[in-house]
Amino acid sequence: MPEYSDMEMIAYTGSRILEDEKIVFVGTGLPILAAMHAQLTHAPNLFMIYEAGSLAPLLDMGMPLSVGDTRAARKALFLKGLCAAFEMTQRGYSDYAFIGGAQIDMHGNICSTMEGPDYNKPSIRFPGSGGAGAMAANCERTIAIMALEKRRFVNQVDFLTSIGYGDGSPDYREKAGVMGSGPYRVITNQALFGFDEKTRRMMLLEVKPGLTAKDIQDKVSFELIIPPVLKEMAEPTEEDLRLLRDVIDKDGYFLKKKVQK
Predict the structure, then answer these.
(1) Is the dihedral of CA 239, 241, 242, 244 positive or negative?
(2) 51 is catalytic
(3) Domain boundaries, the chain
(4) Which of 145, 131, 111, 122 lies closest to 7 in space, CA to CA?
């Protein structure tokens, strides 16, 4: 197999998860790359919603650098602004929310607000929710995308920015008044995770070739559910990498970022 970076593996795996004839609400960065790759390969009829208010633009002018980039509005089927984009999710017109974050816990709750025990004096202040909080609440299923690092996979998020399964109780989301069914997949550079239907805890589904379940568990602060049989993650081919590097993110705006070791 050709050599690939962590970011290329994340984008490729994200592409694999997306299906044709679905609608995905994408966040800035790797979710856009993954959705564009899916459109160019196995899901030509995948539609993207962008937070600034567009649905299914034609990305013939290149990759949008943010969800508000004007390239994400070109020849869109729908273009009515931020409030209308989120209204579509409340009306059930988004199969997936595709978001990132700084922390995630065993029940799929995501923090992108701050790190530390004191909200008023955080050790790190992150950009915040953007649209991710509403996306995780109202899109049918949530896909999270982030690097596999122990500092990110925590026992409890320092601030619940984007709702997952809360404390894991069966009726948590219903009591919270949110509409989507909740977390679906967590995509990283070394593993793919899902969630157990009964306990709503994070479950290891696939590992990068050459790694073991123990290798992954060592990078996660909470206990994972590990099935008796694990799949190996598919790796990007030369054609996949060509699309990512030479067609989608030609300047390496997102692909050249590094995972902290």
Answers:
(1) positive
(2) yes
(3) 6-248
(4) 145
Could you list the pLDDT tens digit for every one of the 261 residues in the chain?
Answer: 789 999 999 999 999 999 999 999 998 889 999 999 999 999 999 999 998 889 999 998 899 999 888 999 999 988 888 899 999 999 989 999 999 999 999 999 999 999 999 999 999 999 889 899 999 999 999 999 998 999 999 999 999 999 999 999 999 999 999 989 999 999 999 999 999 999 999 999 999 999 999 999 999 999 999 999 899 999 999 999 999 999 999 999 999 887 765
Angle (CA) 157 158 164, round 5°:
35
| Per-residue CA distances from 155 to 101, 104, 184, 186, 192 (Å) | 15, 8, 19, 16, 18
Q: Which is catalytic among the residues 51, 87, 206, 223?
A: 51
CATH architecture of the domain 6-248 equals: 3-Layer(aba) Sandwich (3.40)
